Amino acid sequence: MTSADPVRRSTYRHGNLRQALLEAGLELARAGGHDAVVLREATRRAGVAANAAYRHFSDRDALVHAVSLAAMGELAHTMEAEQATLPPSTGPAEAARARFRAVGTGYLRFARTEPGLFRAAFYGRLDMTAAEAAESAGAGGLTPFQLLGAALDDLVACGVLPAARRPGAEFLAWSAVHGLAVLLVDGPLRAVQPDQADETTRLLLDMVERGL
């Protein structure tokens, strides 16, 4: 190469650089949680110069926040998929109960199969405002929290859950299921066998359902 030859760039331009960086961030989070999301590594994986990321993310925290929202969306997709696999029910009440339990089963399945994304989903401050909700929703347009609320509303509509017990029920159900998820992912239950974790999931959902 002579001095007159053009310098070949090792990077390339994306049609949607923000999405490319976000996908790279999700890959990093899947492997190591939010701590593994590094802006320079995301740009390397996206194949762009390091300073190109600052057009879309002001700093690492901004990228981690976007990854958290996207990971929450992946959680919503898993919960929707769990509901989609339900067999036909004999009646509205049975169907509502099954959809409600599928929300919890999908939540815990995601935590166990995608621990890195699960950690990332609940890292930082997610206000879940209208703008953020759109980025953390599943295919049906609902966030995990909204999917739980919709399942509870179905229980009320079918007469399974007394309307007087509906206010705030999502906070109680979420707290119980999330607590077990954390114990299975990062707590003293992380070493239990899969079949034992499945049975614990079933028993916890039995308890929540009876409590409601």
TrEMBL record:
Superkingdom per UniProt: Bacteria
Domain HTH tetR-type: 15-75
Entry keyword annotation includes Acyltransferase: no
Keywords of the record: DNA-binding, Transcription, Transcription regulation
Organism per entry: Sinosporangium siamense
GO MF terms, alphabetically ordered: DNA-binding transcription factor activity; transcription cis-regulatory region binding
Classification via InterPro entries: Homeodomain-like_sf (IPR009057), HTH-type_TetR-like_transc_reg (IPR050109), HTH_TetR (IPR001647), MT1864/Rv1816-like_C (IPR025996), Tet_transcr_reg_TetR-rel_C_sf (IPR036271)
Gene3D superfamilies, alphabetized: Tetracycline Repressor, domain 2
PANTHER family named among the record's database cross-references: HTH-TYPE TRANSCRIPTIONAL REGULATOR RUTR, TETR-FAMILY REGULATORY PROTEIN
Keyword Phosphoprotein recorded: no
A Pfam family hit: TetR_N
DNA-binding region in chain numbering: 38-57
Protein name as annotated: TetR family transcriptional regulator
